[in-house]
């Protein structure tokens, strides 16, 4: 026998929960966040499905539709909602008093009101847009969700029906089905689907995305945006998506043709501006293929009167900018603008003081390529057939000065930075000597005896035995890492200075000094000798074998006394920082990700990385970060000519660096 539910209208204020509703024991079901979308839908569309109610104690108890009831009460309480008050009547169906299927009715409706299948939901959203003419914004308002969520569902609802059917039948996963949305053309989706499934293999989302990449370029991709205007002007086919950013330029060959033309034009413009002999273009700069190319570099020139005047103006402005950048209250935007201005001025000054020789210009050229979303120029390249080859060596180009050309990715240091790094290294060495008193005592005594008794040159000029504290200047002394300073201060606090009493006569002080234990004397001598260490870089074994070996013994790892921080990274060019991250530290992905960031953001990243290596690093990466320092500061590093600090040279010409 069928139970008939009589229709009636009931004021929202006369509705109460029914104790037999199966969701009454799950109050979280009615939390505001769980019914927000339902509230939004009723506000726009009204109550589409009547509530099932039963008369209890003079009220109408909601047997089925508890969440709709909760949403209605929220609308009544919401003063911004129009047309909903406690007296507003809504459609209901009345369950007879003698009906004995109350619990069964409630359970049945709640089961039928279970969440929709994901694919059903995708298709429903797509129909609302295609058939009803709604927009992502109106759909989002109707369902109380975000526009971004609606856009995502719309994409999946328009995938080819055969592919959606395969997902329903569990032949492919939902994620694999979603991957086909990378291309808006259902015909292309079907072709790729059939090609990938013809052998009955397991289909993966990654495989689908890779296959679709060969079928066109998205208009939102960097290359798509770069060539789109020319592409459409030439009549290139566009697979339009309901959402513009997912439309695809279908003719990949035409996209590449236009890209190469634009790259070639950029290379030719650079060739004419710089005076090179030839220009070429590559979609991708293949470093393996380009390994046989040589490279020339600009050499120093004497600026004329006009150029020198401009250089002086640049230096004055750089000093002013440096002062402005030290303002701690500077906003990020203003700070980054100052950085960009500094880089531009440094480049201009370098161009006024460097130039390619006529001979090098006559045989070298420029290649442009697409890298990190922009045109990248690789200048000064020499084709293999034009390189000057040494006997038994690969073709390579020499610098205009006749000296060996630096590696293209080599980091160079200005004279002021080199001097400051020498100071930091001397401070670290002093800390190591203070922490190794016995060894330092032996060194000091050996030098004293050898200098007096041995004939010829002093065994080392690295320490001053007159025990005058070496003055150490540094442009950023208040910003550098303080590890070595703290270690030296701790060593000072541990000294026995009871003998050092100015009220005593020198002879009495000396007697007290002689009475100290040998270990205490060693600490005093070590501390005093450490204070005399001179600023330097890694020592050349041939020039000073004594200190070379001594440093390796007491300071095998400078990082035990010194850590790179923002004070150092701020003085590196952005391209250097990216090269250090990508090549030296093995964090290539991080370098690529940071390439589009400001230098300030990259400095902050490096500062945090070295202060406390991230938990996400591999053991190998963690070890490299823990050991890294500028090469010339390494105790056992390569020989470094202290007399000639490195001059500024062009920034590294690798892909990560150019992305900066």
Word description of this protein:
It comes from Primorskyibacter flagellatus. One of its GO terms (cellular component) is chromosome. Residues 386-409 are annotated as: Disordered. This is ParB-like N-terminal domain-containing protein. Pfam families: HTH_ParB, ParB_N. The protein has 27 helices and 14 strands. Residues 389-406, 452-457 and 637-660 have low confidence and may be disordered. By secondary structure, the chain is an alpha+beta fold. It is extended and about 120 Å long. The strands form four sheets. The protein has a five-stranded mixed β-sheet.
Share of helix, binned: 40-55%
What characterizes the major β-sheet? 5 strands, mixed
Alpha carbon gyration radius:
38 Å
- Secondary-structure-based class equals alpha+beta
Sum up the overall morphology in one term: extended
- Round the mean pLDDT to the nearest integer and report it: 78
Query: What fraction strand?
Result: 5-15%
* N-end to C-end Cα span: 78 Å
> Numbering strands along the chain, what is their spatial order in the largest sheet?
1-5-3-4-2
Q: Find the count of extended strands (DSSP E, 2+ residues).
A: 14
Q: Helical stretch count?
A: 27
Low-confidence stretches: 389-406, 452-457, 637-660
Brief rundown of the structure:
Residues 304-362 form a coiled coil. With 660 residues, this protein is of the alpha+beta class.
Task: Please give the structural blueprint.
Layout: E1 6-11, E2 15-17, H1 32-45, E3 51-56, E4 59-64, H2 66-77, E5 89-94, H3 102-112, H4 118-130, H5 136-143, H6 147-157, H7 161-168, H8 174-179, H9 186-197, H10 205-213, E6 217-218, H11 222-233, E7 238-239, E8 248-249, H12 252-274, E9 278-282, E10 294-295, E11 299-300, H13 305-325, H14 332-353, E12 354-355, H15 358-363, E13 364-371, E14 374-382, H16 415-434, H17 437-453, H18 483-493, H19 506-514, H20 518-530, H21 545-554, H22 566-569, H23 574-584, H24 588-594, H25 599-611, H26 619-627, H27 655-658
Parallel strand pairs: 2-4, 3-5, 9-13
Antiparallel strand pairs: 1-5, 3-4, 6-8, 7-8, 10-14, 11-12, 13-14
């Amino acid at each position: 026998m069928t139970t008939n539910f009589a229709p009636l209208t009931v004021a929202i204020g006369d509705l109460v929960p029914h104790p037999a509703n199966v969701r009454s024991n799950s109050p979280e079901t009615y939390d505001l966040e769980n019914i927000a979308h339902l509230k939004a839908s009723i506000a726009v569309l009204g109550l589409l499905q009547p509530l099932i109610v039963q008369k209890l104690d003079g009220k109408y108890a909601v047997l089925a539709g508890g969440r709709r009831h909760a949403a209605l009460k929220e609308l009544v309480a919401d003063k911004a909602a129009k047309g909903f008050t406690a007296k507003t009547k809504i459609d209901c169906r009345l369950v007879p008093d003698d009906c004995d299927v109350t619990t069964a009715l409630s359970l049945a409706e709640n089961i039928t009101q279970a969440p929709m299948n994901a694919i059903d939901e995708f298709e429903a959203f797509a129909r609302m847009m295609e058939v009803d003419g709604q927009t992502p914004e109106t759909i989002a308002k109707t369902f109380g969700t975000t526009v971004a969520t609606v856009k995502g569902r719309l994409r999946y609802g328009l995938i080819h029906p055969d592919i959606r059917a395969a997902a329903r039948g569990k032949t492919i996963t939902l994620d694999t089905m979603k991957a086909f949305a990378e291309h808006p053309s259902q015909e292309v989706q079907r072709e790729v689907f059939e090609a990938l499934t013809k052998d009955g293999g397991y289909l993966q989302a990654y495989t689908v995305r890779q296959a679709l990449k060969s079928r066109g370029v998205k208009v939102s991709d960097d290359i798509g945006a770069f060539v789109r205007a020319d592409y459409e002007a030439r009549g290139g086919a566009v697979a339009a998506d309901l959402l513009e950013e997912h439309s695809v330029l279908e003719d990949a060959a035409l996209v590449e043709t236009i890209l190469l033309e634009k790259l070639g034009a950029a290379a030719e413009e650079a060739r004419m501006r710089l005076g090179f002999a030839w220009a070429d273009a590559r979609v991708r700069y293949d470093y393996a293929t380009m390994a046989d190319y040589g490279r020339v570099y600009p050499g120093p020139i004497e600026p004329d009167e006009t150029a020198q005047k401009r250089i002086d103006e640049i230096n004055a402005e750089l000093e002013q900018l440096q002062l402005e950048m030290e303002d701690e209250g500077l906003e990020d935007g203003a700070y980054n603008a100052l950085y960009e201005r500094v880089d531009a001025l440094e480049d201009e000054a370098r161009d006024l003081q460097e130039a390619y020789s006529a001979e090098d210009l006559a045989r070298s050229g420029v290649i442009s390529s697409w890298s990190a979303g922009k045109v990248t120029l690789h200048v000064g390249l020499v084709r293999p057939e034009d390189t000057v080859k040494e006997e038994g060596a690969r073709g390579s180009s020499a610098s205009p000065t006749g000296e060996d050309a630096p590696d293209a990715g080599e980091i160079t240091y200005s004279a002021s930075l080199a001097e400051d790094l020498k100071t930091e290294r001397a401070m670290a060495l002093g800390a190591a000597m203070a922490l190794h008193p016995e060894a330092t005592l032996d060194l000091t005594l050996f030098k004293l005896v050898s200098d007096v008794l041995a004939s010829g040159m002093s065994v080392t000029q690295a320490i001053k035995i007159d025990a005058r504290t070496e003055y150490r200047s540094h442009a950023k002394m208040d910003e550098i890492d303080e590890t070595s300073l703290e270690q030296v201060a701790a060593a000072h606090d541990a000294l026995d200075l009871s003998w050092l009493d100015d009220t005593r006569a020198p002879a009495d002080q000396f007697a007290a000094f002689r009475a100290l234990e040998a270990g205490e004397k060693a600490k005093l001598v070590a501390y005093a000798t450490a204070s005399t260490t001179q600023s330097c870089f890694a020592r050349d074994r041939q020039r000073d074998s004594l200190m070379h070996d001594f440093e390796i013994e007491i300071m095998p790892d400078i990082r035990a006394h010194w850590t790179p921080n923002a004070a150092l990274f701020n003085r590196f060019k952005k391209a250097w920082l990216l090269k250090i991250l990508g090549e030296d530290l093995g964090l290539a992905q991080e370098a690529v990700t940071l390439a589009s960031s400001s230098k300030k953001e990259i400095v902050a990243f490096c500062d945090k990385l070295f202060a406390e290596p991230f938990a996400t690093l591999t053991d190998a990466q963690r070890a490299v970060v823990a050991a890294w320092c500028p090469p010339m500061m390494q105790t056992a590093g390569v020989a470094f000519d202290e007399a000639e600090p490195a001059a500024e040279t062009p920034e590294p010409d690798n892909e990560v660096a150019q992305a900066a």
